[in-house]
Amino acid sequence: MRTYTPAVSRFVRRRRPAKLNQVTVNCGQRCHRSPARTQFTSQHPRAAVNRGHKVYHLAHRPTTSSWFGFSAQIIDTLDHGQLFEDWERQHGSVFQLPTLFGMKVVILCDPKAVAHFFSKDTYTYRQTPATRVVHELFFGKNLLWAEADTHRRQRKALSTPFSNSAIRDLTPVFYDSAYALKASWDTSLQSTTQDDGVTIDVQAWMNRVSLDSIGIAGFSHDFESLSGKSSPIVAAFESLGSAPSGSFMKVAATLAPLFPWIYQIPSGRKRELDNLAAVMTDIANDLMARAKVDRADKALERSIIGALIRSETSNSTKQMSSEEIIAQV
């Protein structure tokens, strides 16, 4: 979600440079040759090209609408992954689409291009205002929202819990969650009296696995969602995910590149986002309070919550404000 530079153009044939004032980048769409990139499907990274950078001609898909391009089609499509896979087969792993009012979107499906895009610091690639508004609504002013010096400072503060050795030490946590998931599924299968088995909502269970694993590994707290314990954050996410997108949100998504503030207009989805933010803030405050009481616990030293506590009292370049710390959680 940052500024697109000529470095990515090495993956395409170099042609006569085109002078564009702005172009956006959609990176990591689900493509059939790289299932690992599905994690970026729900987010559409967008970026603006700095004046003076060269942007090379890419294969592009013609559109019949000079006003909206493919914006409306993308928003109305239920399976975005399949849509972009079809386009990739026709135009290659790096191509561009016309969107709202003549703006252009560069689609990256090449694994090396995706790796390059996300490995660069935020001085090279900048988020568009619309993307930053969405990130702030969902997560607050955390590492996903931050750029430039702020991003570097926050990343330094969180470097310890994401080191290779720290991640290796957390491997048993994910195994434990996998075994707990298996045990829950086995119980469901053994308790059913139906001849045709039992229906399992895999996505819902994966959400529980993620919540429990992240809670234990990052914050030394077990949400126990795999054991059936209810959690306000799970309820808030399920409410947000199950609510259909209304006409207003489709219009907002279409116009957001030009009018980022449109996401701030009160609506049903905005109220759900505010509720989710309030629930996450309450949980973050509770986790921070517990961690400060158990500061002597060695398990906190290399955890995310431990790094956040240290950054709050640090006098170095790693110091973060209380608002930033809560947003990271």
Compact description:
This protein is mainly alpha-helical and 329 residues long.
Low-pLDDT sequence parts: 1-55
Tally of domains = 2
Count of extended strands: 5
Summarize the main sheet.
3 strands, mixed
State the CATH class of the largest domain: Mainly Alpha
Keywords: Heme, Iron, Membrane, Metal-binding, Monooxygenase, Oxidoreductase, Transmembrane, Transmembrane helix
Cofactor: heme
Subcellular location: Membrane
Pfam families: p450 (PF00067)
Description:
This protein has 13 helices and 5 strands. With 329 residues, the protein is mainly α. The protein has 2 domains: 121 residues, no CATH class; 172 residues, Cytochrome P450 (Cytochrome p450). Strands 2-5-4 form a 3-stranded mixed β-sheet. A two-stranded antiparallel sheet has the order 1-3. A hairpin with a 5-residue loop joins strand 4 and strand 5. Helix 7 runs antiparallel to helix 8 and helix 9 packs antiparallel against helix 11. The longest helix is centred in the last third of the chain and has 26 residues. The radius of gyration is 22 Å and the shape is globular.
Q: Which features characterize this protein?
A:
Cytochrome P450; 5% strand; mainly alpha; monooxygenase activity; 2 domains; iron ion binding; oxidoreductase activity, acting on paired donors, with incorporation or reduction of molecular oxygen; Cytochrome p450; heme binding
